[in-house]
């Protein structure tokens, strides 16, 4: 008894979906996950990778099958079958992509929201603990609406234009000011007044980066944190994250910003809390001055 073709199609479809899911969940293309929102991001990536694999295998498989199955046999000089439209087929091949795209769109939005992309950037507590944001904003532009109408009065809280972060509003946030310029990132710690070319953070504590650019648009990207945020002249942006694994990870400028853009890299060092405190002690201007005064040049 021959197997009905609908059953074959069903079995091929099931094999396709299962192999796509297997590839999506077992082939690991992503770097180490080192921040609290990395697993959230990775779950979206696995779903997208599975869908992509199913579509790729299905389409390429069908093309190869058709090339072989419907090839011209030797001696056959007849015309192909005259086919004009197939309403059912057209409905199906419109509906399937529509459903897939809609699902991907809604799921991506949900993930972006869970990563803090939709949280309010202008009324969480951390920014009010950063007095230097005022000087930061003042240097941005005199025509900014955050300035007093007379232009000489006190500054209101600066408006953050964009950003992403899960830690917004959480207690115990470590604020760090980031200045991007051609071609470097400079990090300043208001707590302790430390300036550094590398970002040092303690493991497990939420970090809030308040970012400004001096010249052109840059982008702050740490692949291991699964976070990327533009740094824009005149428009402060914010990026918050909670590191979950100690180690050193690259910071990459991800926006073509000039001839040496490719060299605009730094490092984020995630310390265990004690090691971070030691770094803080070692680099604090106060301890450094005391050490020099005490005749200790190694500090
Ligand atoms: Cu750059």
Task: Please give a handful of descriptors for the protein shown.
299 residues, alpha/beta, Immunoglobulin-like, 2 domains, six-stranded mixed sheet, five-stranded mixed sheet, 6 helices, 11 strands, elongated, binds copper (II) ion
Total helical elements = 6
* Shape type: elongated
Bound ions, cofactors and other small molecules, one mention each: copper (II) ion
Structural class based on helices, strands and sheet pairing: alpha/beta
Integer-rounded radius of gyration: 27 Å
Count all strands and give the number: 11
CATH homologous superfamily name of the largest domain?
Answer: Cupredoxins -  blue copper proteins
CATH class of the largest domain: Mainly Beta
Largest sheet strand order? 1-9-6-2-3-4
How far the N terminus sits from the C terminus, by CA atoms, comes to 86 Å
Helical amount among residues, as a percent range? 25-40%
Task: Give the DSSP E fraction (strand runs of 2 or more residues).
Answer: 15-25%
- Strand-and-helix sequence, N→C? HHHHEEEEEEEEEEEHH
- Total of domains: 2
